[in-house]
Amino acid sequence: MEKFFIESLSLDLLEEVRILPGKRYVCRGMKDGEEVYLKFFYGSGSERYFNREEAGLKLLSDNGFLGPKLLDSGEIEGALLPGLWQIKTKVYFVITEKVSGVSLSELWSSTTDKKSLMQRLVSLMSQYHQAGIMQTDLHFGNFMIDDNEIACLDGDGLRKSKSTEKHLENLALLCAQAGFYCPLTIEEILDCYQSAVKKDKFEKIFQEVQKWRIERLLAKVQRNCTAVHVRRKKADTILINKKWDSDELNAFLKNPNKELDEGRAKILKAGNTCTVYQIEIDGREMVIKRYNPRKGLKGKMDVLRAGRSKTCWSHSFVMRDNFLSTPESVALLIRKEGVTRCDWLVTRVASGDLLSDYVSDLAKAENILSEVQSFFDAMKQGRFSHGDCKATNFIVGPDAKLQVIDLDSSIFHKCTTSFEKAYKKDKARFLRNWPDEIKKFFTEKVVF
């Protein structure tokens, strides 16, 4: 955004940091020569959210926990704010000092010592709970770390609570933020939490919270939300990842077959039920999976089902949210005309070598062993199965990291028995077709 001066607050707005349409603008600014952060609340429920933010910041301060220092708060007319926001109603605002440090979200992605970091987080959560405080909005972006000190950035999610049960659910939610690679065992989590909690009880709560997170995100990315825009028009349902929304992408989705058949696209795989292409959109290489109409009764049934394309679309969001590497979903077009259906899924390209090509000898198998082990560990933590765990469904990137592709048959299991059965099949499928020497290596070295 352009630099904007609000005279009544004596500050400059420098840039938007986060936008929640119809609810909130979070901005970086300058006040009296110091960098500050501002939250503007407007629309339905704005006064309630404003009061919660103020009360939460006060909770942190009163109990001696690190967080943004409140400099100013109050009301302002929306007409005084940048015109492009088009706010005509009353707006509530809070101005806080900038909290120095690195976002926990960024640090988590880059650090090699996730175990130590998670131990510090669990310890902080224990201190919160002992003080009768809960942070209910526990995504990693809500915390900053500076010189090993952890500060909470968001006052809105802070609540007073002395309920042991709610505290354990809150602890489980924090640990679930680590995704399918949580570096601490249940015993290690409880050791850091320093409370007399039975392992079986917390393990059950943790699994329930993890299942809730998965199911919530699966539903979220199939409707309009902060990440996804959904449009329905006549026979078409279009889901677009807002991060990649563009005029060129929308033009492609209007008539995808024309674009694919005009020669711009390269065919990667020609199958009866699914054809895979590579094409450039907005100067970036994309993969298009066209799910072709099936004949007879199967085709008629496809019109009534969610479909493999929707599974692939939504599961990629869940995998990435849980720090499992898979190509990002860009858009999904579902076209139902009468009793026929055709879907087009657009994803980013997974660059690198097929695992089957990369592991040409035992030395290469040794190089990738930790990544293979991590993937199967993640499957167990997340209780998901891939459904077709062959070596050609994994890509080894330039950074020697493993990416999983083709999520059409993946399942997040609600039942331990069904997961164990599917996991056994995935393990067998992974080991099949390797040369004897490589197969023996993975069989002996990977802890399945």
TrEMBL record:
One of its GO terms (molecular function) is kinase activity. Coiled coil: none annotated. The keyword Lipoprotein does not apply. Keywords: Kinase, Transferase. This is Lipopolysaccharide core heptose(II) kinase RfaY.
